[in-house]
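Ticket #4471: structure output looks truncated?

Reporter: J.K.
Steps to reproduce: submitted the chain below (237 residues) through the standard prediction queue, then opened the result file.
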Amino acid sequence: MIPTAEQLDEWFKAGTMKRLGMGSRRACYAIPDTNLCVKCYRSDEEITEGRYPGRAPLMPLAPTVVREIKKYRFDERRNTCCSEYRYWKTLAQCLPSDLMSVFPTMVCCLDVPFRGWCIVENIIANDDGSDARNFHEVFKSAEPSERCRLLGAFDWLIDQLIDHAVRFYDPQNVLVTKGKDGSFHLRIADFEPAERTFVSIGNLSPFFVRRKVRRRFARYQRMFGIGSVAGGSYEGK
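Returned output as attached by the reporter:
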């Protein structure tokens, strides 16, 4: 059951939700007694934790990032959570079901008084409840035969994102979930479709979207030594 904004507000104030992770702008929390999580901009206290919470020495967030967090936390039009929710709804109407299954199956957006606009979605996890892992981590530790299957699925994902001009530019957010029967699934945990430029060229032209997706994935593959398989197919699904 999806919690209300008032329930989330109470849990945030009480500090009873477990933090699952935190990026430069947003934090993610597990919602008690559900398989859901909630993402929102960092709180003022979390801003002081710097870029890499728990690491020393402390690396403060860039001033522009701090200003963005405080400026857009309650701004429905510019808030990243709201942008992600709107784009998810658009994708659900136009993408084929196999590609759409890579994204969260349930997403909603709530205005939480204590934290601003938040997005609630499914927690992406393995069938046994353990944490999903980044694609490059799974690929690095996989057996040769499993690597071929992973590469086939990864190439399929790249081709599909390019063909449909999906504004997803961060391959490090591609996760692999494992099934109890040995199967695997590719999942996208976090996608921020709104570019932070004054005029978002990518939002206006599919050509620029495709070029940027291709460039970002090629850089990711070079960085982690991920090869390519001709004619990729989603065999893991």
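Triage note (M.O.): checked the attachment and the full token line is present. The beta strands are 18-22, 26-30, 36-41, 107-112, 116-122, 133-134, 174-178, 184-188.
Status: closed, working as intended.
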